[in-house]
Design goal:
- By secondary structure, this protein is of the alpha/beta class.
- 14% of the residues lie in helices and 34% in strands.
- It has a five-stranded mixed beta sheet with strand order 3-2-1-9-10, with helices on one face. Strands 4-5-6-8-7 form a five-stranded mixed beta sheet, covered by helices on one side.
- β9 and β10 form a beta hairpin.
- It is built from three helices and ten strands.
Length: 160
């Protein structure tokens, strides 16, 4: 299963429509995970034209964005948790393990800083932002491959 992970697209200020380099990756997606701050529901509709979308609410999402604060789902037997703001970097892995005790992977956003870290039987993954790189050298998204309950690929990909 090919999964594209996004976060912090910040439409319409930063995302007026899907950037071409993002669309290239979305065309091959089986599922899209968006870790919040879509800001307007139109982004979810736009993404859904590529693949099914699972999204959590971010701190900048408007009232038209109907999404839960956290989400737990299973994709091809891999247990995934999603949240927008994972809190401070210090203690993050342990805090997310407590929040999602059964997860194999937690996808989050908010900081715009890509991260792929593992420990205590948990992998945490922040795809960064494809449109608002802040202090990062590139805008980014995440590519995940799941095969029979195993995360076989987790890659942060520059798109700007």
């Amino acid at each position: 299963m090919n999964v594209v992970a996004l976060s912090d697209t910040h439409a319409p200020m930063r995302w007026r429509s899907c950037p071409p380099r993002v669309a290239e990756h979305l065309r091959g997606a089986d599922v899209i995970l968006h870790a919040g701050d879509v800001c307007v529901a139109a982004v979810i509709e736009e993404l859904a034209a590529y693949a099914p979308v699972h999204v959590v609410k971010g701190n900048n999402d408007g009232p038209d964005v109907v999404a839960p604060e956290t989400l737990e789902l299973t994709l091809d037997e891999l247990r995934i948790g999603m949240i927008h703001d994972s809190g401070p970097a210090k203690g993050r892995l342990a805090r997310l393990r407590r929040r999602f005790p059964h997860a194999d992977l937690v996808v989050f956003g908010h900081s715009h800083i890509p991260l792929d870290e593992s420990g205590d039987g948990l992998r945490i993954f922040n795809p960064g932002s494809p449109t608002d790189r802040r202090r990062q050298p590139h805008g980014t998204l995440g590519l995940l491959t799941i095969e029979r309950g195993a995360l076989t690929r987790a890659e942060i990909v520059p798109v700007t």
